[in-house]
Amino acid sequence: MPAAIIIWNNAKCILVIVNDITELRHYQHEMARLDRLNLVGQMAAEIGHEIRNPMTIVRGFLQLLGGKERYALDKEYMDLLIEELDRVNSIIAEFLSLAKDKTVKLESQCLNKIIRTFFPLLQADALKQEKNIEMELGDIPPIVIDKNEII
């Protein structure tokens, strides 16, 4: 702590300057706590997206198989599974809406690869409506996107 000897009213005095940093320390601890909370929120949002991706694939195949005659006896079970997957998806969507400040992870991606991955889901929806979809992809350059945002 810096100190200086000064003369005040014809007397030698020691001048000490003191700063109360109690509030500063409180703010520093609060900022550290908020940073940890933010990190947990970001991780939870990423986990939510990672859970949703395979769930979407499972849902699509359940729809696809549910439309096949050889699984007609199991259609009720498949519909129940689809309902439960939709319920879980809804819960995750609500949870993700809390993480508004989600970081965007931009990477060079092949859009055709993403389309091929989700084509069975589109096909299942089309079959449910007694329609057919054909996929014809051309050569396109990779694009910079957040893969989780486009899915």
Layout of helices and strands, plus pairs?
Blueprint: E1 3-8, E2 11-16, H1 22-66, H2 75-98, E3 107-109, H3 111-128, E4 143-145, H4 147-150
Antiparallel strand pairs: 1-2, 3-4
What does it look like?
β1 and β2 form a beta hairpin. It is elongated, with a radius of gyration of 30 Å. It has 151 residues and is mainly α. The longest helix has 45 residues, at 22-66. Helices cover 60% and strands 12% of the residues. The strands form 2 sheets. The protein has a two-stranded antiparallel sheet.
Helix content: 55-70%
What average pLDDT do the residues reach?
A: 86
List the uncertain runs.
Answer: none
C-alpha geometry:
elongated
Order of helices and strands: EEHHEHEH
Strand content: 5-15%
Please give the order of strands in the largest beta sheet: 1-2
Distance between the termini: 59 Å
What can be said about the biggest beta sheet? 2 strands, antiparallel
